[in-house]
Design a protein that fits this description.
Elements: H1 2-10, H2 15-31, H3 36-50, H4 55-70, H5 78-134, H6 139-146, H7 150-157
Helix pairs in contact: 2-3, 2-4
């Protein structure tokens, strides 16, 4: 561990050198049959000490860890965890967004159909009132047939 810290301090601004060191140490750790917890702890320590900031090198580091995981040599460290968490979060966000969008569209469609039916009913009621008025039906009969109050019927008359 001391060697890792010393190496990181020796190359504070050389990201490529730090990555090479991390890669070399990861390969060494994967070749040893250490306790998985100790391997993860040491790998986490190495990652923290080297502090990669270059996005491309971080991506290569994550890729290397995934390759090692694929070989059955688990190196589950924070950058890999962050990468996987971001990927899962993105997928969940996309799924939730899709579901919410579908639900909103369904609700909007239902509301539109309901509003359309209401408009249709209003137009039909208006037509019925106009025909009854044209046939000189008494106001009380029109009110009873349509269920509308007198003032609405008079407003339609105008």
């Amino acid at each position: 561990m001391l060697a890792a810290a010393k190496h990181a301090l020796a190359f504070p601004k050389n990201e490529i050198q730090k990555f090479r060191y991390l890669k070399k140490m990861a390969r060494l750790l994967s070749e040893r049959n250490w306790n998985p917890k100790d391997t993860r702890d040491l790998a986490n320590f190495l990652e923290r000490v080297t502090k990669l900031t270059n996005p491309e090198l971080k991506a290569k580091w994550v890729e290397l860890q995934q390759d090692l995981n694929g070989e059955g040599k688990v190196m589950y460290v924070s950058l890999l965890e962050q990468h996987l968490t971001q990927k899962i979060t993105q997928e969940v966000t996309e799924q939730v967004t899709q579901r919410v969008t579908e639900q909103v569209a369904q609700e909007a469609e239902a509301r539109g159909k309901q509003e359309g039916r209401q408009e249709e009913r209003q137009e039909l009621t208006h037509d019925v009132v106009m025909k009854l008025l044209a046939l000189n039906y008494p106001m009380c009969d029109i009110m009873e047939i349509t269920g509308l109050p007198e003032d609405e019927i008079r407003a339609m008359k105008r």
